[in-house]
Design brief:
There is one protein chain. The protein is an alpha/beta fold. It contains four helices and seven strands. A seven-stranded mixed sheet has the order 1-7-6-2-5-4-3. Helix 1 crosses helix 4. Bound molecules: adenosine-5'-diphosphate and magnesium ion. The site of magnesium ion (MG) has 5 residues, from helix 2. It comes from Dellaglioa carnosa. Belongs to the TsaE family.
């Protein structure tokens, strides 16, 4: 499913709706170039989960935990793991937990990821700085159902 947006606010609105729908143990993969809007999307998700603390890009450690919302949010940016794979870091403890894991640059830890997930790819527009295409691809029935609910909410 592709959603076209024309502003930061629209991106965050979609993310916020998704944040209201996510369930325990879900994993959301956020992909796209630098500046595509991955962290912007993660901020909207946090709002949807009822997290009031400002979500910042995780640097070191690579995971930030937010526990004041409807579900725990684990926000990861694994950019620094490029070429290292991410094995033995214990990231699976987050993936197997009851929280929601959001992973920026998930391609760098491909082999560590669970089979089922929602992949969110943000694509910039060559002509318009504020425009993005948000691609949502579900892997697994739980995620497909969530996208159906998102479509209803968004319609
Ligand atoms: N529609 C949009 N959605 C998301 N970000 C946008 C949009 N339009 C402009 N931007 C800008 O693009 C930048 C995205 O930065 P960020 O979310 O940190 O990207 P990433 O985490 O992918 O590197 C921000 O400066 C934001 O204001
Ligand atoms: Mg980022």
């Amino acid at each position: 499913m592709n959603i076209e947006v024309n502003s930061v606010e629209e991106t965050q609105k979609i993310a916020e709706k998704l944040g209201q729908l996510v369930e325990p143990n879900m994993i959301l993969l956020l992909d796209g170039d630098l500046g595509a809007g991955k962290t912007t999307f993660a901020k909207g998700l946090a709002v949807g989960l009822g997290i009031t603390r400002n979500v910042k890009s995780p640097t070191f450690p690579i995971v930030r935990e937010y526990r004041e919302g409807r579900l725990p949010l684990f926000h990861m940016d694994v950019y620094r793991l490029e070429g290292m794979g991410g094995a033995d870091l214990g990231l699976d403890e987050y993936f197997n937990s009851d929280g929601v894991s959001v992973v920026e640059w998930s391609e760098f830890i491909q082999d560590e990821l669970p089979d089922d997930s929602l992949r969110i790819t943000l694509l910039k527009d060559e002509d318009d700085d504020n425009r993005r295409v948000i691609k949502l691809d579900s892997y697994g029935s739980q995620y497909t159902q969530m996208l159906e609910q998102l479509t209803k909410k968004n319609g």
